[in-house]
Design brief:
By secondary structure, this protein is α+β, with helices and mostly antiparallel strands. The protein has helices at residues 44-51, 62-70, 96-108, 114-131, 135-148, 161-166, 169-179, 195-205, 255-266, 272-280, 311-326, 332-348, 353-367, 373-381, 385-395, 411-422, and strands at residues 3-6, 12-17, 23-30, 75-80, 85-92, 185-191, 228-233, 239-246, 284-293, 298-306, 402-407. The longest helix has 18 residues, at 114-131. The mean pLDDT is 96.
Length: 425
């Protein structure tokens, strides 16, 4: 288990020694993301993530920042989500101080240079436009818009061309000053390290971080009632679809049962969707399911890409699979096999220093503590057929169905698909 240390300044630090490794991974977890933005400033959190790589007081340009870590064989990156933004570095142990110095500079002393800001604005707009050239990815964003219209979850995390074009330096620095503080940040470190040395180095690197306060995201989003279909006609080689339903928050007591159920449905090559659509019918190369959980809501998604003419058959097979789950189609042998898959996947995912640091930081940010791996395994082991059946009947409801489709289709195809999902589960 990692050790949680609160520095004299109030900064929360998680330390997990992994003496068998050669590296140290450092994650700076900020409890601020796309859900903390007003609609007019959509994309601000993601824009800030980009700008923190563009120059600081001691590393005045992007090249100096990247070379400081990559120049010693390390890795430096970041990601923005709906409720958090994470900056992380992984380096050989002997370069730990350098990585901490770079991260501290980025988070505490970014320049927000106006010339760099305008260049990065163009980059982000091209990132947004590039998504539309990848319909297999775009369809997932289209589903979010279909389900969560009117809330932050219905907007792209990166914002839109319109909102990104309007964001000012003052908009970005105001968001940064409001959210990048000790109350809102966790530093998680894992690897071949000495506890006291790491703590001293973190306190030095993040000295001057303001105290601040934790600000909750916008009010709980309410998904639109289904069944609903959004279809975009595009001249592409495949029909891309996402079928989604409202899911569970990460504190929900049914979260382990849903984790098991999702693995049964589309969690790997042995899952029902993969076996049915790919192995039995040969309809798809990419097919599966996933669940995104947030503090107060979630989204459960089934997806695939097929030949345009096979879209209807694929959606029918997905709906038939969901109906079978609602009616209690899971067997005890299937349940036991999937539970072993879930447990094994969890353990295998923790063989890397960044995986460990990432899990620890995300848990503390979400739950206020790090859930022991042994506890998660025990909770998965305790999932019963009744639990799986209960969560299937709870979530697989006709009025929750939302279908997003991108492909070479006409209005008649939309009417046909709408009729299919209107039949319900």
């Amino acid at each position: 288990m990692p050790e949680l240390i609160t520095s004299p300044s109030g900064l929360r630090i998680l330390i997990e020694p992994l003496p068998h490794t050669y590296s140290v991974s450092i994650g700076c977890f900020v409890a601020a993301g796309a859900r903390h933005e007003p609609p007019v400033h959509s994309g601000a959190a993601h824009f800030i993530e980009h700008m923190l790589f563009k120059g600081t007081r001691r590393y005045p340009n992007a090249r100096m920042i990247s070379q400081a870590v990559e120049g010693v064989g390390g890795m430096l990156n970041a990601s923005t989500a709906y409720e958090s933004t994470v900056y992380y570095a992984k380096v050989a142990t002997l370069h730990m101080h350098r990585a901490l110095d770079v991260l501290g500079e980025m988070l505490l002393r970014p320049l927000f240079d106006l010339q760099e800001l305008e260049k990065e604005r163009r980059v982000i707009i091209e990132e947004l436009r590039g998504l539309q050239d990848a319909p297999g990815d775009w369809v997932h964003e289209l589903l979010q818009q279909t389900m969560w219209t009117g809330s932050a979850l219905g907007r792209d995390i990166a914002g839109s061309v319109e909102t990104v074009s309007m964001l000012t330096r003052a908009d970005l620095t105001t968001f940064w000053q409001r959210h990048y503080n000790r109350a809102n940040m966790i530093i998680s470190v894992a690897g071949n390290l000495q506890r006291d040395t790491v703590v001293d180095a973190i306190n030095a690197a993040f000295d001057g971080l303001p105290s601040g306060s934790h600000l909750p995201p916008q009010p709980r989003p309410i998904p639109l009632s289904g069944p609903r279909l959004t279809m975009l006609s595009r001249d592409c080689e495949q029909g891309n679809f996402c079928l989604g339903l409202p899911g569970l928050a990460y504190n929900d007591p049914d979260r382990r049962a849903l984790q098991v159920l999702d693995s049964i449905l589309g969690g790997g090559m042995s899952s029902r969707l993969f076996q049915l659509l790919r192995e039995e019918h040969g309809l798809a190369y990419h097919v599966g399911s996933y669940h995104n959980d947030l503090s107060d809501s979630g989204t459960w998604v089934m997806y695939g890409s097929v030949e345009p003419e096979a879209l209807r058959d694929a959606v029918v097979l997905v709906l038939d699979t969901l109906r079978d789950l609602v009616r209690g189609g899971v067997t005890q042998p299937e349940l036991e096999m999937i539970k072993e898959q879930v447990k094994g996947g969890l353990l295998l995912s923790l063989e890397d220093t960044w995986s460990v640091a990432s899990r620890n930081g995300a848990h503390l940010l979400r739950y206020g503590h790090v859930i022991p791996v042994e506890q998660v395994i025990a909770e998965v082991e305790q999932v019963t057929l009744d639990d799986v059946q209960r969560v299937a009947q709870r979530l697989l409801r006709s009025n929750g169905l939302h279908l997003a489709v991108i492909g070479p289709y006409a209005d008649d195809d939309a009417l046909d698909l709408k009729a299919m999902i209107t039949q319900g589960i």
